[in-house]
Amino acid sequence: MKFTGSVTHLSQKGLGVVKNDQNNISYFVSGTWPGDVGEFEVIDKPLNNKKFAYAKLIHLIQSSAQRQAAACQYISLEENACTGCPWMIADYTSQLEQKRNRFVYAMKRVGFDTTQLTISAVHPAPQTYRYRNRCQLKTDGVQLGFISEHSHQIAPIDDCIVLNDSCRKLLKTALMRLPNTAWQSDPGEDLNVIELDDELPPEAIHINQKRPFKQGNTSQNLWMQNWLRQKLAQNTPLGKVVELFCGSGNFTQIIAESNCTAIFAYESESSAIQSLKARNFAKVHPQVTDLFQPMIWKKIKKHVIDAETLVLDPPRSGLKKLQGFFDSFISLKTILYISCNPETFARDAWAFNQQGWSIVDIQLVDLFPHTPHVEAVVEFKKI
């Protein structure tokens, strides 16, 4: 079925939303921006909701005032196009506005009165191209690229303009090794993964070799580290600090600079903890711990019960398990939460709010221009 309509806003996942007045159904459409007018075609993509469905843009009748030509040659409406930077079709100022809108909507949806929160504009990235210091590619031994969300197949690329110079050189090196029978996967098996980052030597490019996690935007990561440094300096004396989801020490190093007496740092990845231990930070007690296991807060209570400051940087799923959390962290005065997902952060923040915690500072940061992603660094205080 085809229909004509206007994109009114963006969904929480960054897709354009257009309503079909013929059937009163709203459709999610990739590659569109608020203000676009176009002809759309319904696509067969499962969605367990009678009021919403998916469609694709087949003809743009009138462009949004914020729409711009994508700088990347691989962005198109083709079935197997790269979908890594879906917002490159819009000017950067409007991208930042939409990222803030996404965060505000998530907070409203769980119950916050956002008029009572000071949510500033998103801190922009100094560079909107050539900024990424890592990437994950897929290969079948013949092609190399990112997975297209449309076809779920490799969208082959020869270059990527959001990668920094070091990663672009590594990408060129990997492409020169194609075709490569050693990189082929058997029929029915998953495609092989190649992870690149700007600390990887060219000779170390191999398939299915997991690289240590690092924030994907070096300059914006430095900004977040500085925010944390300032917050810790304002909350003295610190006493013991607990860090959840510490990884290999991206924020641990900042905490270790402070006047805290001890840092209990928890992370589920043993390789990350080994990397953290190798950095020999003073006062740090690294712990390999699955923070999503049942009764986890009771299990670590003896180490956290007297901590007055908590720093956490969870994955996209957020904190998730809060049962018994505040029974263990009974001495907390400050929570410093670094989030990469507005929806799960809002859920956790509302749970904190219901336990008497107030948000005193929210800063939004754009780590990944041309995508819907937005980071939040937030300070909570006990009311």
Overview features:
seven-stranded mixed beta sheet, Rossmann fold, alpha/beta, five-stranded mixed barrel, 9 helices, 383 residues, OB fold (Dihydrolipoamide Acetyltransferase, E2P), single chain
Please tell me the total number of domains: 3
Share of β-strand residues: 25-35%
CATH H-level superfamily of the largest domain: Vaccinia Virus protein VP39
Q: Topology as H/E string?
A: EEEEEHEEEHEHEHEHEHHEHEHEE
Please name the CATH topology of the largest domain.
Rossmann fold
How would you state the average pLDDT, rounded?
Answer: 95
Unreliable residue runs: none
- Please write the CATH class name of the largest domain: Alpha Beta
Measured between the Cα atoms of the first and last residue, the distance is 54 Å
> Shape, please?
globular
Outline the biggest β-sheet.
Answer: 7 strands, mixed
Structural class: alpha/beta
| Number of E strands | 16
CATH architecture of the largest domain: 3-Layer(aba) Sandwich
The radius of gyration is: 23 Å
DSSP helical segment count: 9
Please give the share of residues in helix. Answer: 10-25%
Brief synopsis:
This protein is of the alpha/beta class.
